[in-house]
Amino acid sequence: MIQNGPINWLTGGEAGYGITTMGSMFARMCARAGLHIHGYAEYPSLIRGGHNTAFVRVGPSPVLSHEGKVDVMLALNKETIEKHVLEMDKDGAVIYDNEAIDFDFSAVGKNVRIVAVPLARITKELGAERVMRNTVALGASFAVLDFDFDFIGSVLERTFLRKGAEVVEHNIRMAKAGYDYVKENFANGFPTCGGDVLPFEKKLSGVANQPSRMVISGNEAIAIGAIRAGLKFMSAYPMTPVTSIMQVIAGQGTKYGIVMKQTEDEISAINMAIGASHMGVRAMTASSGGGFALMTEALGMSAMTETPLVLVMGTRPGPSTGMPTWTEQSDLRFVMHASHGEFARVLFLPGDPKECFEMTFKAFNLAEKYQMPCLILTDKYLGESVSTVEPFDHKNLKIDHGESISMDDALKIPEGTYKRFKLTESGVSPRALPGYPNCIYTTATDEHREDGDLDESSENRIKMMDKRARKMATLKTESLPESECFALHGDVDADLTIVGWGSTKGPILEAVSNVNTDGKKVNFLQIKCALPFPEKGVTEILKNVKKVLIVENNSEAQMAGVIREYTGILIENRLLRYDGRPIPASQIFDKIKEILS
């Protein structure tokens, strides 16, 4: 357990020295000890170099977002101290290599503990490469927190087992050296900026008899959801923040029979995915703003040819190249209306890893059943942050291929009569795969008749447009009821309703929880689908609220605009952030207090 509340741990250093890996290892060690974590990494938009940080928040109960002052800072260079020392909690601890870093701590809070550990010297004495000082430093930080070293050793063993027993033993020895140095040299307490020697009050220890939990990111959850849905082909071009989806799929390709094709560009990526899907293979692609912009013409091809497609769009700040490695929610409108013309599409807005998994699985079923594009909109904060999550409930999930023609059915069709784009009441036409007997047809991106041949007549155009549009009404009735497109978290009779979507879910829920324990009643309306938009449910809730606040990671309150478009309701109270950083719960909490004061 943790004494004196959740612990906020931060490490920073130069790119290329395993900062993200350190954050991941710290998080997994805490999770293995039965604790909950939320981890978030920041890194600059550079090929090499720059300042990297990894932030991990640890608690005995679910941790929903990054938040609060830093309790333990593990600084691998001077820049980390310079950039983050003012973020330290007044009783926090800074761990650094005093033989390599010269820093004047006189301006820092007088009770901040200064933990000087000769990381480079210890590493050299053990005959290791300089990069191994990270492992020494990790051990030192756990010693400051009085954490049981057994957990550290077990995670290091699992992490490096594939590299052999010698590598495992070496890493454990490095971590133990840092751990023992702190225990032996600071047994009576830590020197402070004010000149005193004080113990570090916050302790970290395991919680017994806890269920097994995953430490997983939103991107990893999307990849797992796709695999569970029967994915067999993915084509994509690497682009932050969705690259890790490709990496997971590639890593699991042999086991699950999946082809992961890294294409030369995003145009090729979406065209290959559509081509694979046209042949009957469950396929997907993924990109970010600039790459998705290149995909938009082919997105329309998916709709016109009624070919299933699952596409993940990870938002980052724009316009143009913008801030490639930072986070934002500024592409909502773009994805809702991408490609020319009018056509039905589904747009999911997951808010946590569990929803990433579930919505991805659902997207594959809907895309194939209704022969249409289904999109999943995420961002860097949701996609790359890691959290402790209960194992996903997947046993009852069923793959639904929709109305398709089997080989036996095809043999019974009179030759020359098959209509791939047959006009139906549901809008969904019976689909035969290329190569089936008696099912030769034309697939074209031009407007076409039921048999696929081109037809630009007024009468045909209206019939085919109406047919494709009917898919959405059928989908909403059969497979995606409005109740699944939004959720109201908390008491219906609240003093304030917060509206949000996507990655703001965790920070909003944490802020709401803090406010509700402070004597006020606040609830959270989460928009889970932008298309189809749950206009009836959202209207019913918002027309009866006392006060309302919308929280978004963009500058134009795009979801507020969508809500006004569909409901006529204007949300005037807005908390918007658009500097590339996620909105912390404390900022939302302060805004709530301001509105309710």
Question: Can you characterise this structure?
Answer:
By secondary structure, this protein is of the alpha/beta class. It has 4 domains: 7-210, Pyruvate-ferredoxin Oxidoreductase, domain 3, CATH 3.40.920; 215-389, 3-Layer(aba) Sandwich (Rossmann fold); 407-478, no CATH class; 483-596, Rossmann fold (3-Layer(aba) Sandwich), CATH 3.40.50.920. Helix content is 38%, strand content 19%. It contains 19 helices and 22 strands. Strands 6-5-4-1-3-2-16-9 form an 8-stranded mixed β-sheet, sandwiched between helices. Strands 11-10-12-13-15-14-20 form a 7-stranded mixed β-sheet, with helices on both faces. Strand 7 (190-191) and strand 8 form a beta hairpin. The relative contact order is 0.09.
From the structure above, extract its key features:
single chain; 597 residues; alpha/beta; Pyruvate-ferredoxin Oxidoreductase, domain 3; Rossmann fold; 4 domains; eight-stranded mixed β-sheet; seven-stranded mixed β-sheet; 38% helix; 19% strand; globular
Furnish the topology, listing elements before pairings:
Layout: E1 7-14, H1 19-32, E2 36-42, E3 51-59, E4 70-75, H2 78-84, E5 88-96, E6 113-116, H3 119-125, H4 133-144, H5 149-160, H6 165-185, E7 190-191, E8 197-198, E9 214-217, H7 218-228, E10 233-236, H8 243-256, E11 259-262, H9 266-278, E12 283-288, H10 289-304, E13 309-315, H11 332-337, E14 346-348, H12 353-370, E15 373-379, H13 380-384, E16 386-389, H14 407-411, H15 458-478, E17 486-489, E18 496-501, H16 505-516, E19 522-527, E20 529-531, H17 535-542, E21 548-552, H18 558-567, E22 573-576, H19 585-596
Parallel strand pairs: 1-4, 4-5, 5-6, 10-11, 10-12, 12-13, 13-15, 14-15, 18-19, 18-21, 21-22
Antiparallel strand pairs: 1-3, 2-3, 2-16, 7-8, 9-16, 14-20, 17-19
